[in-house]
Amino acid sequence: HSDSCSRCIDGRRHGRSYGREKTKSLNTGMGQFRSFLKESTNNVEDYLTEFGNAVVKTHQRVKIGGKDFFVPYRFKPNCPNKMISACWQGDEPAGWLGLLEYVKKFNPENANVTYMPVASKEVFESGEHEDNRGDNPNHNIPNNPSHETRMLLQSIRRWLPYAANGFLDLHEDPWRSEGYIFLWSDCKGLGSRLVHLLSKNFPLHKGGVIIQDDQGMMGDYLSKLGVQPCVTTETPVKGFDLQHRVTVNVQMIMEFLRC
Fold this sequence. Notes:
- This protein is an alpha/beta fold.
- It has helices spanning about 25, 30-35, 45-55, 95-105, 120-125, 145-155, 155-160, 190-200, 220-225, 240-259, and strands at about 60-65, 65-70, 80-85, 110-115, 165-175, 180-185, 205-210, 230-235.
- The longest helix is centred in the C-terminal third of the chain and has 17 residues, at about 240-259.
- The protein starts with about 20 loop residues before the first helix and ends with a helix.
- The relative contact order is 0.17.
């Protein structure tokens, strides 16, 4: 972790919880979200089942590298292959809830879209920023990843073609009241359009765009493998209610798929 990390606040490393409340407490007041964090061992499965039901006519659920992917039954030969992922951290719920809301309402026709809505089942269950071993699932990729992400990387040859023409990673910043994106690689002005969208809903951090970070995130790694565009979005948790953040995530997904 670098002292010049683009996301640290007042010298505090953002990759640790430091006694932070769990998402269940951070985001009270929205029954839809709390229903997935009930005290049971299968709430990840509840979410994935609901997601699968929403795309059952167009996508099949496939297990790759320990992750549940929702892959199109049919890949249109003249359409780009794009991937959207969420839930790398458990205290960033607007990403995976926005993705669920999107697939319930829309079925993109101009792209072959593969979804990986839960990147880490452990953080989904716990509501924490790190997995059960204290590792950030979206750091130190590819050289020293978390155990869940290591399994995903071991199967990268299987799923990388699904992201050949674009990768969108839906995150939130639990410590900020400003939005921004990590723009690892751009395409047709997508980065500027996403920043403009964020600016209409939140104050911007560092002008809304960060182009370099040394923490080893998946988006950064995939861009180095040639994926374009490659973007990690960050909606702010502090000061903004969950439903508003969910709505903005839906809008960012739509913008990504226009590229």
